[in-house]
Amino acid sequence: MDRQHGFAVVDLETTGLSNLDRIVEIGVVLLRPDLTVEGTWETLIQPERDIPNSYIHKITATDVVDAPVFGDVAAYLGALLNGRTLVAHNASFERRFLANEFARAGTEDGMCEWLDTMRLTKQHLGVGKLSEALAIAQIHNRLAHSALADAQATADLLAYLHANHRADIAHYPSALFTTPAPEVRTLPRGGAPSWAGQLSRTLPEAGTKDEATYRAELTRALVDREISRTEMRQLESTAIAAGLSADDVEAINEEFTRQLAVEAWSDGIITDEERATLLSIAEALGVDPALVHSLLDDPLTGPTPSTFTLHPGDRVAFTGALTIPRDTWTERAAAAGLDVGGVTKTCAVLVAANPDSMSGKAQKARENGVPIIGETRFAQLLKAMDDTAEAAAPAGSGDAAVAAAPVATASVAAEAPEQFSWLTPDQVRTTGASSARIAAAWIALHPDRPLHELADNLKPHHVPEATGAGIDRYLAVWSLEHPEMLSVSANDLLDLPGVGPKRRSQLVEMVVDLAADGVEEPASAPAPQLATPPTPQTAPAQEPRPQTSPEPQYAPESQQDPTELSPEELLAAAHAPRYTPVLTTPTQYNVAPMEPATPPRKRPNPSTVFKWSAGIGVLCFFLFGLCLETFDPEAESFIAGVFAMGFLMGGLTAAISGAMTLIGKFRN
Questions:
Q1: C-alpha distances in angstroms, 553 versus 86, 143, 233, 545, 595?
Q2: 0.70 exceeded by the pTM?
């Protein structure tokens, strides 16, 4: 057996399943020819787009802020794979995504035919799912849906199949990557580098200095009194561009921390919340904690940093799956006299579910220097506006101010959303900017039109943004059933397992929000060039889904957490006989997936019971008559008694189930 070259076992985590989705994590286990481990390699990847399926692999936009893009690691990854047999479980998935990424990066693709352990497990173990094969082989996967952990489990499974079932792993070609590459920067899961340490390594020691620009960026980053990882990187870039040294940045950060302490002491007390906030900011900025504690121990005086406030007429924008529905925030902002709309250069703030979001609006906000804040900070800013208005209002004017609020809300509600050109002026006055009302109008007026026709800026391949709530399970099933998700109609959504009118409305509302946020068109992947003779390429809308075991078995839902299931498993579970959709209570604060309900015991269909019981009754009657005509004219034998009892019970059951069937038909 010629097996002088080693193996490279690969596993990927991605943002989804279509050709427009991207890799977010790579794990590689290098094996010697005898299948012993030679080494491992892993890294998170910045996909340069939003990550809608974090609930599967637990990788969020925050985790990949510091991660390299695929183009940064492509050549080195090829060098790792060079000269080895490529191995994966459901190898067509890994091969397709890597081919797309190599093509996007414009780098060499030396991949060849892969060894697929899923094919081997079906052949030797009778199962296709990785988790089921690992259970049979008694192999523990330390962290499912983590690229390196899944690759290590797959490597152990390959060794088990070869040793215990003599699985054929020879005669596979080896990958051929000819481009040499030095080792590259990686970011393992959970291994985000320290911002202060990274800053000290990248800032110049001297040069022309522009402290004002850095101070302005720092002020903008601290609008919500938090510094996200993306804001840290923005501060780093600003400091480099401003010609600041590490000592300069340290001095400015310390000065700013002192000013925040002065502001905190302005009311004469330091609350526990203020103390925790200031310590958190100081830690993010790399300021000595001992200095911060000394600042908080005694009242201080001095200049305070500019306090960010909102004023009537300021433009605010929203993005992402907000905890409080966007319609509610829009109404509250309008009542305060704010202008709600898209992101522009004059926009005061962008309110985001996750400040590290890579949505189109978030990227535009960063380009225009617009602060990105969370909902909590926005609520505080609204309250500050209310307090200012109350303090400025003359006596007796309170009723007038209250009366004016509905007028402001109505004016915003009456604004015509330009991208929904199918709405008539009368309909606009009814729906306003409410996502729920626009979705309801679309379902009522155009239930059979493709959903991408709902707005002028939508295309069939666009993907609604996940919410973090229970509806995401049905979003995943939708994406698997229809890779070009917006090519289907609202009525088509009712054909998805577990989707009724209410969930259909939620899904269509997500499409409305996608259009309202403004869709950033991703760069399409060039057709990958494979080293082996190419197979006919299939369009994204027709690409087959990864295959699963023909007869998947699922643990009871009380023992299996649905948030640990992959999209493929969700779809398989949706079609399984024992699958029961997870029920969620629609409240405006429902942001976390609810625990799955215990599946009820399935009741037999009355019409089916009638057919079987009538058949059994007739059969028993015939056999009872046969007994009387042959060996038991007096019907005294045990067999005759059994047939007689079967006839009586079958007839009684048939009568009851038949009546229930008729009642059911009349009700329907």
A1: 29, 21, 46, 19, 20
A2: no
Residue type, 104: R
**Long-range Cβ contact pairs of 431-438 (< 8 A, separation 24 or more):** 433/327, 433/330, 433/340, 433/516, 434/327, 434/330, 435/326, 435/327, 435/509, 435/512, 435/513, 435/516, 436/325, 436/327, 436/505, 436/509, 438/509, 438/512
Q: What digits encode the pLDDT tens for the residues 270-289?
A: 788 888 888 888 887 888 88
Q: Are 154 and 131 in contact (CB under 8 A)?
A: no
What pLDDT shows up at residue 328? 81
pLDDT confidence of residue 298: 63
pLDDT of residue 95: 96
Helix count (H) and strand count (E) of the chain? 24, 9
Any bridge partners for residue 316, and if so which?
Answer: 340, 349
Would you state the pLDDT for residue 492? 92
Q: Where are the alpha helices (DSSP H) in 420-498?
A: 425-431, 435-445, 472-481, 490-493
Task: Supply angle C-alpha 278, 283, 284, rounded to 5.
Answer: 100
Secondary structure of residue 177 in the 3-state scheme: coil
Lookup result for tokens 């009741």: 603
* Secondary structure element (H or E) that encloses residue 373, with its range: strand 372-373
Q: Give me the half-sphere count of Cα atoms (radius 13 Å) on the Cβ side of residue 645.
A: 6
Which residues are within 8 A (CB) of 119 and not within 5 positions of it... i.e. 6 or more apart? none
Q: How many CA atoms lie within 13 A of 252 on its CB side?
A: 20
Containing H/E element for 131?
Answer: helix 130-137
* DSSP state string for 509-566: HHHHHHHHH----PPPPPPP--SSPPPPP--GGGPPPPP--SS-----TTTS-GGGS-
Low-confidence stretches of the chain (pLDDT beneath 50): 1-3, 193-207, 300-304, 396-414, 416, 523-564, 574-575, 577-600, 602
208: how many CB neighbours lie within 10 A of its CB?
8
Structure tokens at 51: 């990550």
Distance separating alpha carbons of residues 249 and 232, to the nearest angstrom? 12
